[in-house]
């Protein structure tokens, strides 16, 4: 019977490798005291072969490729590792059991497997070393003869952080926002740099906050856990003024921003509340059963009524200082009712409608930052209710209301996203557009056409998410332009032709649709104003012509909106888009037609700034905010006043606007001013 050699299991190596090689006592810590004192790399594991030198540092990717890798771990204690004579690697757990009950206590690796792992790791180390050498060679090597085009081409525009009026922080703007295009133009042209404002461009574009005051402060108590419903009801105006503000909202506010679809029902409920208040003697009395129903109406309706009154107040004919303060108080009352409803934990469709109207009111008061913040919370409430998807289980009327609320939210959100060039959740998923059952091409309503324009804007924002499509190509711009023309061509006749409009609402809808569609087309064609865009001169000239024409149409539509009714031009979205278009236009086009249009826009802004009197100290925050835009446009006009009109060869001298200018506000707001024909 042959005898086999007895293979003895070696004793466990309880010391670290450096102490074992130096033959000194090891305290068996990780790292041990000797390695810490001598700055050695303390490691435990199988002792190295006598032919292999002891490493003094951790092996990196830049080491010699021929050097074998040593698989040691400084975190495993010495009593948990052992190695056999034939090179098989085993791991023993101190408790005698493995971490996984399905695995054995000892894991053995054969010598062949161990050699294969070592071979692969050495090959991987060689590849990493080659890549490291290649990167070093490219980073230190300079191009021998750079091309002249590369030397002259400036860096592409990047994101910026604009300072706000209140100096409370930096506001992020994407590289495709109008502010970045204006700044890039000022850097490329010395004349334009001297003319365009540089210190506070965020204020000139009406994208900052004019007040740090919290718009939702409790006016009756400092305790956040108390609600003074009697104090809120006491703020309700008299019947005549309440109906007047409601009429302004019905005829102008709901047309400019159509959040509510059933305005007659709102009027009926308002009259019912006023009637109940007269019966109660004009004073709120708590219900005997403990229910909080002020004057027999729900808290949700009371909050909605205050939001509507705040919007109607901004569009009314009362003095400007009273408009701003009164609307601020109504917003606070509406928010107090929402707090009593616990609206954050229990959002409803009506709550979202209230928040959308409040956000729009904050924009009117030139607090774009606060409005954008509130709109972000409202947007997430829409996601909680599932308004961004088509959901079954609702009636046709409820489904239409859900879709309408979502698209009105998307209208505000898309404008903020285009203005700041920031991504939005609304561009990821959208429900169907709430078309009427009798809607057809050629008879699309204003809201349906506006939703189609917003849908196209969301598609453009969605395409910007992909790095390979950072700039629109010529065929994409042409396709988007054709879609806009098709949408406008399928609208109802009064949205396409001025002579088909027979009411104030129809004139507002036609002008607003022209303004928003023109602005979106200018955003699409703005790539032609970027010198870094990959466009040949012929195509750049064609797209630039469309861009300049769209900017002109945007401003002209806003001026026409003011001529129709001066209250309509207080819409913040229309106002901000017109001001941004004006700065882009004067930075890229120095024609006689441009300066005539800028003069007309200055007249509109001056009418809002000097609405009450010319005393700067008595102006409201909104008037002061617009005065900065007006002052900037006047400074730009003065810097370019020496330019000659190419048609006549004479210097263009713009008219001098008085301070305050003659008021353009119609004393009878409900009567339509005759429209100027072009």
TrEMBL record:
One of its GO terms (molecular function) is DNA-binding transcription factor activity, RNA polymerase II-specific. Residues 15-44 form the Zn(2)-C6 fungal-type domain. Keywords: DNA-binding, Metal-binding, Nucleus, Transcription, Transcription regulation. GO terms for biological process: DNA-templated transcription. Pfam families: Fungal_trans, Zn_clus. Transmembrane segments: none annotated. Residues 77-105, 137-159 are annotated as: Disordered. InterPro entries: UbiX-like (IPR004507), XnlR_reg_dom (IPR007219), Zn2-C6_fun-type_DNA-bd_sf (IPR036864), Zn2Cys6_DnaBD (IPR001138). The keyword Transcription applies. Gene3D superfamilies: Zn(2)-C6 fungal-type DNA-binding domain. Residues 85-98 have a biased composition (Polar residues). SMART domains: Fungal_trans, GAL4. Signal peptide: none annotated. This is Zn(2)-C6 fungal-type domain-containing protein. It comes from Penicillium bovifimosum.
């Amino acid at each position: 019977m042959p005898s086999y050699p007895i293979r003895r299991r070696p004793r466990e190596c309880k010391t670290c490798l450096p102490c074992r090689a130096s033959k000194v006592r090891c305290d068996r810590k990780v790292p041990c005291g000797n390695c810490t004192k001598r700055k050695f790399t303390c490691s435990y594991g199988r002792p190295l072969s006598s032919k292999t030198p002891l490493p003094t540092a951790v092996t990196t990717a830049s080491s010699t490729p021929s050097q074998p890798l040593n698989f040691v771990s400084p975190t495993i204690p010495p009593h948990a590792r052992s190695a056999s004579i034939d090179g098989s690697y085993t791991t023993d757990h101190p408790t005698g059991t493995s971490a996984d009950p399905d695995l054995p206590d000892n894991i053995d690796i054969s010598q062949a497997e161990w050699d294969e792992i070592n071979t692969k790791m050495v090959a991987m180390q060689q590849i990493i070393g080659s890549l490291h050498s290649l990167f070093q060679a490219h980073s230190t090597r300079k191009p021998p003869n750079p091309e002249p085009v590369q030397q002259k081409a400036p860096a592409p525009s990047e994101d910026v952080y604009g300072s706000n009026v209140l100096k409370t922080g930096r506001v992020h703007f994407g590289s495709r926002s109008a502010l970045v295009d204006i700044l890039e133009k000022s850097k490329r042209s010395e004349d334009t740099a001297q003319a365009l404002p540089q210190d506070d461009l965020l204020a000139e574009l009406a994208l900052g906050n004019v007040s740090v005051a919290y718009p939702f402060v409790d006016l009756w108590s400092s305790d956040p856990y108390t609600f003074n419903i009697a104090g809120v009801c006491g703020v309700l105006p008299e019947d005549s003024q309440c109906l007047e503000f409601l009429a302004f909202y019905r005829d102008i506010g709901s047309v400019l921003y159509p959040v509510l679809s059933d305005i007659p029902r709102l009027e009926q409920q308002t009259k019912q509340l006023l009637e109940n208040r007269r019966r109660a003697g004009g004073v709120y009395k708590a219900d005997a059963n403990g229910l909080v129903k002020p004057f027999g109406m729900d808290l949700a309706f009371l909050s909605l009524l205050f939001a509507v009154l705040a919007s109607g107040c901004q569009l009314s004919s009362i003095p400007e200082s009273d408009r701003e303060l009164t609307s601020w108080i109504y917003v606070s009352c509406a928010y107090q009712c929402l707090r009593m409803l616990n609206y954050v934990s229990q959002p409803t469709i009506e709550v979202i409608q209230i928040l959308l109207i409040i956000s729009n009111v904050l924009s009117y008061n030139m607090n774009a930052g606060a409005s954008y913040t509130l709109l972000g919370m409202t947007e997430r409430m829409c996601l909680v209710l599932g308004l961004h998807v088509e959901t079954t289980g609702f009636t046709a009327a409820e489904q239409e209301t859900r879709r309408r609320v979502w698209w009105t939210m998307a209208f505000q959100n898309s404008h903020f996203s285009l203005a700041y060039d920031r991504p939005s959740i609304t561009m990821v998923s959208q429900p169907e557009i709430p078309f009427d059952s009798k809607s057809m091409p050629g008879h699309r309503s204003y809201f349906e056409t506006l939703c189609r324009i917003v849908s196209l804007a969301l598609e453009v924002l969605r395409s910007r998410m992909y790095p390979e499509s950072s700039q629109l190509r010529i065929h994409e711009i042409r396709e988007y332009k054709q879609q806009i023309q098709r949408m406008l061509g399928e609208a109802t006749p009064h949205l396409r032709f001025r002579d088909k409009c027979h009411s104030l609402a129809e004139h507002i809808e036609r002008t607003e649709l022209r303004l928003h569609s023109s602005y979106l087309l200018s955003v699409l064609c703005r790539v032609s104003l970027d010198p870094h865009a990959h466009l040949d001169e012929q195509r750049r000239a064609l797209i630039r012509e469309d861009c300049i024409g769209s900017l002109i149409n945007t401003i002209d539509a806003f001026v026409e909106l003011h001529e129709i009714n001066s209250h309509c031009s207080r819409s913040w979205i229309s106002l901000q888009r017109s001001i941004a278009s004006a700065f882009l236009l004067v930075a890229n086009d120095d024609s006689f037609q441009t300066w005539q249009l800028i003069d007309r826009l200055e007249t509109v802004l001056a009418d809002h700034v000097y609405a009450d009197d010319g005393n700067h100290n008595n102006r409201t925050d909104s008037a002061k905010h617009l005065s900065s835009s007006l002052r900037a446009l006047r400074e730009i006009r003065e810097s370019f006043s020496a330019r000659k009109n190419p048609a006549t060869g004479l210097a263009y001298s713009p008219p001098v606007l008085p301070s305050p200018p003659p008021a353009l506000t119609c004393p009878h707001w409900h009567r339509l001013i005759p429209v100027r024909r072009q």
